[in-house]
Predict the structure of Uronate dehydrogenase.
Amino acid sequence: MKKLVLTGAAGRLGSYLREPLTKMCDELVSTDRAEAIGKTYPGETYVQADLTDLAAMETILEGADMVVHFGAIGDEAPWDDILQSNIIGAYNVWEAAYRKGVRRVVYASSVHAVGMHVKTDVIDLDAPHKPDTYYGLAKCFCEDLASLYWDKRGVEAVCMRIFSAAQVNNARALGTWLSYDDLIHLVERSIDTPVVGFTKVWGLSNNDRIVADNSKAAHLGYRPKDNAEVFAKEILADTPPLDNKDPANMCLGGPFATVELGNSGVAALGVVDDRKEI
């Protein structure tokens, strides 16, 4: 592939994708609104840009084969912030992709698009949207945007509904973990699968305590290897019995199911910022 674009390159998940993506193309253009991302990998260039600037997105996507879209506020936030970064920003990515002939958008969607579903239902990919926050609502919008641009404009999309792509440090993550290695594998399959149309896929590792059914995305060839069960003994030893009437314990969205709209959900998860450095 000649050119890939990665948005959100300065973020924690973006830091793990940059090097693998350079191996899939001649040129990787990483972009974020941060002033810099430090050293770049061979074949990678960095362009500072804001997703809310459609003209800038058009310039960056010129000549690109695909865009891997991870740029957004990665947490619940006030409505106006979510609107600008996560909704208008996503529209600009898809519209620029269409205008510049980009074949596919690989999108970091989220479990929070369906976060109010009960995890014991083990839903499949056809379960209706049931967002838990403004953040989750924006993911619903972007999945429908991806579907629309495929149906009406022929821009393919893979919407990866990422669960817990972070260190396993709580009982919820035993069923929702997505390891960084499996994240990379999922993005690679979302890029190199010959035909995807509009595809949704759960971003989950091969956990024993799986909370969603990925069988309807089998055509991607995503076969995760890691399993959060290796952390179970230690995690459960430090976890008191959970209240089974608390939506934070019963719903797929975890703490996002109970936070007030506009307030951080990540703060309750204890996510460790272990971004990759070079």
Summary: The chain has one domain: 3-268. The chain has a mean pLDDT of 97. The helical segments are 12-22, 54-61, 79-99, 134-153, 173-176, 180-192, 232-237, 247-250. The longest helix spans residues 79-99.
